[in-house]
Structure formats: C-alpha cells, structure tokens
Amino acid sequence: MRGRSSKLVCVLMSGLVLFTLAAEAQSPASKASEPRPALTVTVTRALSQNLSQRLSANGTVAAWQEASIGAEIGGLRLTEVRVNVGDQVKAGQVLAVFATESVSAEINQAKAALNEAKAVASEAQANADRARALQPSGVISAQQFNQSLTAEATAKARVESALATMAVYELRLRQTQVKAPDSGVVSSRSASVGAVVGVGTELFRLIRGNRLEWRAEMVSTELFQIKTGQKVNIQGAGAGSITGTVRMVAPTVDGQNRTGMVYVDLPANAMQTVKPGMFARGEFEFGSSVAALVPQQSVVLRDGFSQVFVLQSDQRVKLYKVNLGRRQGEWLEITSGLPTDAQVVVKGAGFLTVGDLVKVVPETATQASPAAAKP
Questions:
Q1: Structure pTM?
Q2: Residue 125: helix, strand or coil by DSSP?
Q3: Tell me: the pLDDT tens digits for 248-275?
Q4: 312-321: which pairs have CB atoms within 8 A and are 24 or more residues apart?
C-alpha cells in the first residue's frame, strides 16, 4: 500500500509540473496578442466661454497736422531764436526775430517820400481851388483850369502811392518777427542765430494742437467692419496703452497691396505713451460672443492645416481638421470642424498618428483657465 501511494504521488506531481510548464509556455503568446497603448495622453473637452470680438491692426503714430513755419522775409539775419524742439507754444507767440535795421531805414525813407507827396498835394489842391474860383469869371482859360485839376489829382495819387509803399515796409517790419500760426508743440527747428535765410525757408515745424493720430493699415475686407466713432485700444512701445476714436476710414484702397488707412484720433495726453513716428498695434472692439476653446497644446499643424486628435470610444484617436479663431492666453477658439462634446487630446498630441491606441490619464497639473488668462 505504501508503494502504491508513493507512485500515485509521483504521478500527480509530474502532471502538475507538466501543466505549469504548458501554462508558462502559453502565457507570452497570450500577452503578445493583446494590443498595447502607443502613448499615455490627457484629454479635455472644449470649454464654452464669452470672448470679446476684436480685430487687430498695425500702424504708425503721426501728427494730426504739422504746420511748417517759414521766413516771410528774405535776406535778413536772424538775431534771436526763442523756442526749441519740444517747447509748447501758443498761437501768435514770437518764435524768432530778424534784424530790423535795414527795414527801419526803408520805413524812414518811405516816410520822407510820403511827406514830400503830401506837400506837393497840398500845393496842387490850393492851385486847383483858385482855378475853380476864377473859372466862372473867364480870367483863366479852360486849358489852365484843366491843368490845375490834373495836377491836383496827380498829387493825390502820389500820396496814395507813398502810403502804399509805407504800408509795405511796415508789413516787412512785422514779418521780422516769426510767430506761431497755432498752438502746439515744436517738433523740429532749423533756425539758428546769425543765419541769413531766403523767403520761404522753413525755420520750425509745429504739431498743431498737440494732436496725434494713429494710422492703421488694414486689408480691404476689414475696412467695412470699421465705423466712425468706434473705440480702439492702442498699445505703444511702452508699457501703457491708450484708447483712441476712429475719425475716418480712407475712401480709397492702395491698388498694389490692397490695404486702406484708418485714421484714429488719440487723446490729448497721448504723448506720454506714444510719440510721432512710433509703431503701434491696436485692437478694434466689436462686443463679445460665445466661443469653444481648447488648449493651444492640443492643436497640431500638419500639411499646412490646424488639426486636433479626438479620442474615440475604442480608446483610439482620430484626426480632425479645424478652423481657428481668437486667442485667449494659452487657449484657442475652434470655429468649425470639431465634433460636439468631443474629447480632445492635449498632452502627447504632437506624437500621435491616426488610429493610435492611447492610455488616458488624469491631468496632474491644473491648466490655467481661459478666464484667468490675459488676451
């Protein structure tokens, strides 16, 4: 009995060993047949949020109008320059002064000629009065009478001519003072003491009324969206921003680049933030609308198109071509192409191909929401 028991135990042990070896031989094959995920990813659904509708444009800050202040009199020496670049001036303020010696001498000469003409006119008038008194009695001939009247008229004309000459020289004397035609700030100065300039030579350039404007270049399709009086947020080279108002949209479009100009008036204190000639970027506000937002990391660029990977029910991914809209921080608006309630792959999207099996894990770090992000 004991021998039989031993044999039975040996048989059972041998069968167990063979069964274990067969199971181990079949295990790698069964594991190899199971599909393995290509990548571990995170997914999210598109967020719906109200976003402001904006239209961005680039442009240049310029003076609303610049007044060119030149010399109205020539051949005179500048004796005094009273303003410099950046000075605030008022309308009628004296900016520079020319030497007046030669003009004063001409005025004195004109005064002498005027006095002489008045003396001759006085004598001619006296002679004409006597001729009028004697003419009825026939003492003087008609020829003498006419000569007296002609001399009187000629003398009066010479007085008027002398007065006109006097007025010209007095005007030249006033022109020796260069005055500001309007209030504003001096933007350039070419006048220097001691210089002898000709008529029309520019001495100063003035930004009228301290008014600046932003000239935005926009494509023709965008021009029709802009309305007069619309508010614009303009960001200059500095840290601050200013709000302008659309004054005018150009009536024509450049035939070569198909762009038009939008003129935006800037506030009175704009020079504290921007300067004429600076580049600036602006945004036109058009209210707000609901947008579907996805993280920027989930959008991949392939074959020149923006695309996203969407998780399917079988844990495989499918590629969808989408159209992008506005940006809100690290979030992008999807305007079309994304299925409703789709689970979009975020982390790992750039390494996937169509049909890949993925393993979804929860997000470990909380992403910044579009509401907290600055546009």
A1: 0.60
A2: helix
A3: 999 999 888 889 999 999 998 888 888 8
A4: 315/37, 315/357, 315/358, 315/359, 315/360, 316/355, 316/356, 316/357, 316/358, 317/345, 317/352, 317/354, 317/355, 317/356, 317/358, 318/354, 318/355, 319/354
DSSP 4-57: HHHHHHHHHHHHHHHHHHHHHHHHHHHHHHS---SEEE-EEEPEEEEEEEEEEE
- Supply 112's token pair: 């002498």
| CATH number of this structure's domain 39-50+290-360 | 2.40.420.20
Q: Which of 166, 167, 157 is nearest to 121 (CA)?
A: 157
Pick the CATH number of 69-99+177-208 from 3.40.50.261, 2.40.50.100, 3.30.360.10, 3.40.1190.10: 2.40.50.100
CA-CA distance, 350 to 356, in Å (whole number)?
12
* Rounded to 5°, angle at Cα 78 from 81 and 200: 100
